[in-house]
Amino acid sequence: MTDTSKSANLRLRKNGRPISALTAYDYPTARLLDEAGVDLLLVGDSLGMVVLGFPDTTHVTMEHMLHHTAAVARAKPKALLLADLPIHSYDAPDQAVANAKLLAAAGADAVKLEGGVHQAGIIRAIVDAGIPVIGHLGMLPQRVVEEGGYRKKGKTPEQADELLRGAQAIVGAGVSAIVLESVVPKTAKLLTDSIPVPTIGIGCGDGNCDGEVAVVTDLIGSFPWFVPPFARPETDVAPLIRQAAGKYVARVSEG
Fold this sequence. Notes:
About 45% of the residues lie in helices and about 15% in strands. The protein is α/β, with parallel strands linked by helices.
């Protein structure tokens, strides 16, 4: 079941304390992050890469998202629980509403989808069904294959204008907040100052959005094989895991 009061609280933070958001894909991580006081837990389709070993998010299915959303929801977090709608799960309004309802039934308080002007009708349909929606503009991971890689967005006035039109369209459709990914700082600040709902940045520089979201594996160093250039690790657990496993192997081998 969705908790619309959590979404309302998120909306009120536009001019308040910055929003802290982290991804979570399983029960114990969700509990630990919630105990740390994180405002928003995102069951992101980034799980395709950092949990399931796919090269990008385009391999993630609704089954994957439902499985991991339910696991995080079992932690009963105080934080708002946001779940991504995976690629091709919201190609039409009826499909989008049906899949949003499935994520809500799995425990999501809100759903997130990528895109601007062309997604306004999809967003409106989900919101009209009683499920809060958070938008996602800038670099769109679900389009990485067709765009040929990950690129910064909003670098030219034309790109900035396009992003602003997209933000205004999805705000008009009813989003509660917008994630901005890999938008150049000047444009991220422009968008943040121009819309009435919070922006949550990743790779947008400091102080340009109303909050920040990070991938938890980047934060704790548990996926060392690829770390985005904008990531800021706070610890490095990969060597500790290798060390612990090595000690275990040695102890067992010694009999």
